[in-house]
């Protein structure tokens, strides 16, 4: 059963940043999809959470996904101490996943089904959705999802998209890791099935890579 990754908080309003043209293009509408992917509203996302390549020295091998939940970043480890960094929204306290996992499989425009725990906590909200929700713009998983397994078992946690741009950088979901839709589409293209995922809780400082 798919994990539910819905929002339980409300947006806050901040001063709108000046958005460079390169980011307007990066986060523009995506064409050629079975359902619309509109442009991200970057005015509701802190600039530090916009996608960019950064220095990231680490012992983790190239191709590893590292999720730093406290900093609200997801890193895709690259070569030569570099990584692609994405801003994320994370799970509320007590609902987060921690540890190592693998991307067992990926899905474009996935179905979504609330977990039994979600239905038990909020039966009126999630009970009517117990049989699942079809793909589309209203689906909480968005246009892409990566399914995390540990020791061969489904963790029920996903890395997925969201149209709720204001939730990036916040702890609002039912435990999953959410990215802007443009970012999950970008990440989806870069990682294969079997990709290692490390989800960190608490303060974290990247460790220096070993010298050759």
TrEMBL record:
Q: Is Cell wall biogenesis/degradation included in the keywords of this UniProt record? A: yes
InterPro entries, alphabetized? LD-transpeptidase (IPR050979), LD_TPept_cat_dom (IPR005490), Transpep_catalytic_dom (IPR038063)
Give the matching Gene3D superfamilies: L,D-transpeptidase catalytic domain-like
* SUPFAM superfamilies for this protein: L,D-transpeptidase catalytic domain-like
Keyword Cell wall biogenesis/degradation annotated: yes
Write out the pathway annotation from the protein's UniProt entry.
Cell wall biogenesis; peptidoglycan biosynthesis
Source taxon at top rank: Bacteria
Domain spans labelled L,D-TPase catalytic: 63-200
Catalytic residues identified in the record: 160, 176
Which family does the record claim for this protein? Belongs to the YkuD family.
Protein name stated in the entry:
L,D-transpeptidase
Q: Which organism is it from?
A: Pseudorhizobium endolithicum
Organism lineage string: Bacteria, Pseudomonadati, Pseudomonadota, Alphaproteobacteria, Hyphomicrobiales
